[in-house]
User: Which sequence fits this backbone?
């Protein structure tokens, strides 16, 4: 099974009202595409020569911080959502 076929939404609950917790500074971005490749939820896109984050990322992001970790020029800012978490996973 491909990770992209795995329905994380079915085992997770998103908490509303967390506020923005990821942002990008396009002036620092070198268009390396690493964030596009690493995000298992496919939330980064290249649009008109710029990297953009999906508008509904707060509903889909699993807060893995991988995009933040791979961004060498530090264009991506990430902080855990207000209140500690925006996503809760259920197991079993
Ligand atoms: S934190 Fe993880 S899931 Fe969220 S946008 Fe970054 S890579 Fe994607
Ligand atoms: S990882 Fe950082 S530098 Fe690379 S494309 Fe994404 S935002 Fe730009």
Assistant:
């Amino acid at each position: 099974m491909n990770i992209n076929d795995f329905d994380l939404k079915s085992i997770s609950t998103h908490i509303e009202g967390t506020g923005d917790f990821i942002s990008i500074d396009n002036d620092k971005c070198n268009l390396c595409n690493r964030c596009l490749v690493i995000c298992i939820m496919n939330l980064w896109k290249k649009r008109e020569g710029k990297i953009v984050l999906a508008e509904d990322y707060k509903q889909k992001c699993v807060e893995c911080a991988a995009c933040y970790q791979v961004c060498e020029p530090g264009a991506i800012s990430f902080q855990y959502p207000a209140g500690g978490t925006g996503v809760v996973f259920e197991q079993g």
Remarks:
- Strands lie at 12-14, 22-24, 44-47, 50-53, 76-78, 87-89.
